[in-house]
Amino acid sequence: MSREPEPEREGQRWGFGAFLLVEAVFILSAVFITAIASTSGADLSSSMAFLLIGSIVPTVLAAAVAVVITLVRGNGPLIDLRLEWNWADVKVGLKLGALGMVLTYVAAMVWARFVGNQNATSTIGELVDGTTMPVSVAVVMFLYVCFVGPVCEELIYRGLLWGAIERQGWSRWAAFLLTTLIFAASHLEPLRTSLLIVIALPIGIARLITRRLTASVVAHVVNNFLPGLTILLIAVGVMPA
């Protein structure tokens, strides 16, 4: 585990306003795509296209805006978002990601027992549940859930938001707590918020102990792998829904 001090944020001219702008981009783009889909009278194949667009575009667009903000108002993502590559961080991310998978499984089982199995399912899981997707669509969804989504979300929450909190002079423990809570709430799935907090803990811990984003990205990818693979196998009809 790295115990080196957090680097100074010299030249960073962005803070909470940048995060609020990124969240606004995410929400408004999602609303816009949903509005188009609801008025298009789409058939199944078009609905699958809208499913991909509505799931992927808002998150990718928001993450892109976060990166642009660091380029225009700061030192770029490598410095401002702590996106430095480090093999030691990869190892930490793998370990905490594996722990997160176990924790997620246990938490989901407990949640399903007391709240109901349906409420433990993510929004994307509900959308593909019982639906046989074209293989190409299922593969794209798998890649998004396992890789693209985690990278983008880490850039936004444990990159941009974490940096905004630290810029205020708050401790990294405050950053860990707030980013975990806001990450869970931002999924806009009220019934699953407490479950999402549990899922987010190992990911946040990876960022906390290494002070860089690589570990949390790896932990997030590992944590999402089995759910993403399950969605893929169900979507193509290999596993029963």
UniProtKB/TrEMBL annotation:
Membrane-spanning residues: 16-37, 49-72, 92-115, 135-157, 169-188, 194-210, 217-239
InterPro entries: Rce1/LyrA-like_dom
UniProt-listed GO biological process terms: CAAX-box protein maturation
Domain CAAX prenyl protease 2/Lysostaphin resistance protein A-like: 138-226
Keywords on record: Hydrolase, Membrane, Metalloprotease, Protease, Transmembrane, Transmembrane helix
The keyword RNA-binding appears for this protein: no
A Gene Ontology molecular function term of the record: metallopeptidase activity
Designated name of the protein: CPBP family intramembrane metalloprotease
